[in-house]
Amino acid sequence: MEYQVFTLPNGIRLLYKPVISSVTHSCIIINAGSRDEAKGKDGLAHFIEHLLFKKTEKRNTRQILNYLESVGGDLNAYTTKEYTCIHASILNPYLNRAFDLFEDLVFHSTFPEDEMEKEKGVILDEIASYQDQPEEAIQDDFEDLIYSGHELGRNILGTTETVQSLQKQDLLDFLANNYNTEEIAIGVMGNYNFKKLCNTFELVFGQVKHNTGNRKRNPLPIYSPVLKKEAKPINQSHYVIGNLAYSIHDGKRTGLSLLNNILGGNSMSSRLNLEIREKYGIAYTIESNYLAFTDTGFFSIYFGTDPEKANKAVALVNKELKKLREVKLSESTLAKAKKKFTGQIALAEENRLNLLITMTKCLIDYGKADTLEEVFEKVNAVTASQLQDMSNEVFDPQKLTTLAFEPGEED
C-alpha cells in the first residue's frame, strides 16, 4: 500500500497510490458532514452535496454531468456524519478533467435558488423512500437513541421540515465554517509520474484560498441505555441492539473490528448467522456493525424476523454475547478468526476505488495510511484476553440499548 503525499501551502493534500492500470480512480474528501450542522439545519451537508452538481461559475448541470461521462468516466458523491466525498473514475489521460471538476464543484458552486427548490423535492422523495424501508430507518433511529440530542444522532438526510426551511445563506455559512482547506484531501490511484502529478495538482488547487473555518464540534451527551419499542405499519419485527464503543483514535478499535467480524461481520460463517439463521432459521438477515467516529463510536446488532420469533431471536443474541463475555477464545479459534479477517481485508483491496477513499480518509484522520502489513500486525497483536475484556465492556447487558419496530398502528 505504498503511497506518496504532497501538501500545498493552503493545506490541501494529495495522496498518490501508484498502480499499473489504464484506469484512474480519484476522490476529494472534505472533513465535514451532518454532525457539523447548526441546530435546526438537519440535512444541510447532504443538501450541499447534491447542489454541488447543479451549477458553478463556469458550468451548468448538463456540462457538469457530461464533463467526465463524455470520455467514459464515472462521477458520484456521498455524505456521512463526518465527511463529504466526491469520487471519479476515468481513463488515465483525463485525470486533469477530474481535478478541474473537483475544484470547480467544491470551490465555485453558485447554488441558484431554482435549483435549490428542485433539489429539495428530490431529497424529500429520498426521505420518503427511506422511511418505507424499516431495516434502514431503524439504524438511524438507533443512533438517535444512543446519541440523544447530539448532532451524531441526526439523520443525514434531515427531516421534511428542516430540508424545506434551508436557505442559500445556510449553505454559504456551512462552507465557510467547515470546508477547512487543511482538512481537505485529494486521492489518486493510477499510473503517473509523481512530480508531474504534483505540478498538475498545484496548478489546479494551488490558487484555492486558505481557509481554517470556524468549526467547533459539541461534546457528547452522557449515555444512558434505553429499551424502546415502536409500532409501525410493517409485517416483520426489526431490532437493533447495541452500545457506545471506541473512537477512531482508540487503540482498542482494531480489536473490536476483529470481534465484530467474529460475531456478525460480513460472512456467512459469523456466530450470529450460524446460530440464528442457519441453526434455528429465525432471521433471514442478522448482522453486527461497528462504526467509529472522531471522538466516539458504536456497536450494534440488527435482525429482522417474524413477530412470534422475535423474543427467541433476542435471547439467542444475548446468549452469543454472554459467551464472548465469559469464555475466552482458544488459541486455535483466535488464529482462525485472524486469518479470516486479514484475508477479507486483503480481498477488499481489490476494490481500488474503496481502497483509495479509505486511504485518503486515513490521511485526514491520522496523517498517514497504514500499509497492509501494518494492518495485519495490528490484527495479529490482539489477544484473547483483550477481546474478552472488550466483550465485557461493550456487551455489558446493563449498558445495551434496544430499539424495536413492531407491526402495529403508529401512534
Describe the structure.
The structure is a single chain. The strands form two sheets. Strands 1-2-6-3-5-4 form a six-stranded mixed beta sheet, with helices on both faces. A five-stranded mixed beta sheet has the order 7-11-8-10-9, with helices on both faces. The N and C termini lie far apart (53 Å). The protein has 15 helices and eleven strands. With 411 residues, the chain is α+β, with helices and mostly antiparallel strands. The longest helix is centred in the first third of the chain and has 19 residues, at 113-131. Strand 9 (283-292) and strand 10 (297-305) form a beta hairpin. Helix 3 packs parallel to helix 8, helix 11 (310-326) crosses helix 15 (384-394) and helix 12 (331-348) runs antiparallel to helix 14 (372-380). The chain has two domains: 4-205, Cytochrome Bc1 Complex, Chain A, domain 1, CATH 3.30.830.10; 227-407, Metalloenzyme, LuxS/M16 peptidase-like (Cytochrome Bc1 Complex, Chain A, domain 1).
